[in-house]
């Protein structure tokens, strides 16, 4: 049972208690867009031709089947317990700039309508579920290869839908800044997956089919958030949805459904420990944890994504310190730690060419000093987190309920396979 001060678990953890010695660890997938740009798919996305980026593959059944379904299956077969949907850049604005492929030679198709955009975005969840059903692992209950089979509804920041993209800069149009504006923008997109009617209305939430309510196999991933006001806006949007859901009650007055658990993950492209908008780690933790209430629910996970791997150690320590400061008397671990860093230590994303290019090097460049594989370095970081968490639990001061670890841009299927082999090779040490 969750409360405003205790969010529900992000992922199923049978028999969990604060004194449990093992730390549950599960595997997330890798970089969707960059994997689609590599062999065997070799797709190219640009803001002019495909403003939806990888979400463009939701626009036709053929694209969904030939590319998305296949890649999702490969990540599952490589070891992923949790798969993100291809909805990260999905937005009404992006679909409004995208022409339909109507098959008429020499003619451009019409732009997608709002209703058509809704149907496309909703397909993102169904493709992942189909991939889990068809993947050649996890079919036998109790098998070592069994997967959790969790779908993560991937929702990027407003900046991921802008042209040019602004998730790394946090530079939003003036008319789209502030908690309330960003709350409304995220809420509009969230409604696509919750229902087709007004949130909380009898003819909406209660009577129309929802893709996410009442399903234990789905979580919501707010990813790559670059701004403090967007973090606050996301929590407010989830609070509005939660109030609508709680209106559904049975004859005894008990709530029939609850919000799916969600995580908030931020990006750190700067060399200091600040978000693109300049917020410190302490300020972002305050935005994530401050004033918990039904209208500002706590996320079940706190994460770092789309960030260079060499920055993780220091950032995680800062997260842990800030969480402890804000909740000094909490005996029960509250959150999952969600880590999915980039896999291209010597590359940066060029927003002009819209490609990954070698980064200029300096004598003190930490990313050039790597001799181990990406998966090996991430395994070491996970081990350190596990060790610290076990020590905290001895004193009744745990922070992390578990760890979800995977990759972001430039992390391939092979990278996820190696990561699972490394992180989960000691079955007695980690819960699965």
Can you walk me through this structure?
This protein has ten helices and ten strands. The chain is an alpha/beta fold and 432 residues long. It has one domain (25-423): TIM Barrel (Alpha-Beta Barrel). It has an eight-stranded parallel sheet. A two-stranded antiparallel ribbon has the order 8-9. Helix 2 packs parallel to helix 10 (413-423) and helix 7 crosses helix 8 (312-326). The longest helix has 21 residues, at 114-134.
Secondary-structure blueprint of this entry?
Blueprint lengths: L24 E3 L4 H5 L24 H18 L3 E3 L7 H5 L17 H21 L15 E6 L23 H16 L23 E8 L2 H18 L16 E5 L14 H9 L11 E5 L6 H15 L8 E6 L6 E4 L4 E4 L15 H21 L5 E6 L7 H11 L9
Parallel strand pairs: 1-10, 2-3, 3-4, 4-5, 5-6, 6-7, 7-10
Antiparallel strand pairs: 8-9
Helix pairs in contact: 2-4, 2-10, 5-6, 6-7, 7-8, 9-10
């Amino acid at each position: 049972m969750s409360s405003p001060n205790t969010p529900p678990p992000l992922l199923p953890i049978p028999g969990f208690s604060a004194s449990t010695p093992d730390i549950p660890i599960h595997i997330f997938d890798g970089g969707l867009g960059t994997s689609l740009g590599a062999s065997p798919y070799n797709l190219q996305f640009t803001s002019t031709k495909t403003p939806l980026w990888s979400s463009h593959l939701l626009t036709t059944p053929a694209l969904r089947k030939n590319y998305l379904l296949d890649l999702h299956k490969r990540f599952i077969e490589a070891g992923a317990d949790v798969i993100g949907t291809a909805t990260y850049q999905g937005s009404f604005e992006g679909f409004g700039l995208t022409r339909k492929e109507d098959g008429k030679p020499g003619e451009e198709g019409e732009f997608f309508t709002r209703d058509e955009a809704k149907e496309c975005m909703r397909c993102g969840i169904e493709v992942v579920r189909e991939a889990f059903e068809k993947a050649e692992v996890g079919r036998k209950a109790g098998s070592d290869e069994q997967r959790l089979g969790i779908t993560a509804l991937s929702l990027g920041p407003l900046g991921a839908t802008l042209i040019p993209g602004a998730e790394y800069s946090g530079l939003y149009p003036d008319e789209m800044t502030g908690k309330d504006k960003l709350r409304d923008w995220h809420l509009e997109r969230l409604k696509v997956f919750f229902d087709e009617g007004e949130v909380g209305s009898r003819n909406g939430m209660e009577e129309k089919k929802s893709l996410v309510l009442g399903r234990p196999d789905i979580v919501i991933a707010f990813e790559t958030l670059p701004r403090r006001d967007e973090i606050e806006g996301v929590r407010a949007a989830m609070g509005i949805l939660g109030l609508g859901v709680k209106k559904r009650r049975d004859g005894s007055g008990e709530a029939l459904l609850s919000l799916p658990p969600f995580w908030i993950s931020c990006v750190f492209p700067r060399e200091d420990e600040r978000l693109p908008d300049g917020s410190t780690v302490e300020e972002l933790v305050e935005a994530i944890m401050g004033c918990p209430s039904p209208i500002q629910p706590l996320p079940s996970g706190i994460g770092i994504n789309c960030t260079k791997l060499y920055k993780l150690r220091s950032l995680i320590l800062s997260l842990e310190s800030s969480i402890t400061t804000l909740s000094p008397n909490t005996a029960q671990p509250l959150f999952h730690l969600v880590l999915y860093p980039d896999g291209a230590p010597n590359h940066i994303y060029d927003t002009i060419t819209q490609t990954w290019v070698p980064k200029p090097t300096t004598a003190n460049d930490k990313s050039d000093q790597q001799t181990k594989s990406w998966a090996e370095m991430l395994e070491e970081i996970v081990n350190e987190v596990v060790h610290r968490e076990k020590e905290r639990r001895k004193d009744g001061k745990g922070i992390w309920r578990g760890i979800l670890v995977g990759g972001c841009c430039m992390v391939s299927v092979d990278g996820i396979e190696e990561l699972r082999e490394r992180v989960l090779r000691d079955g007695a040490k980690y819960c699965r």
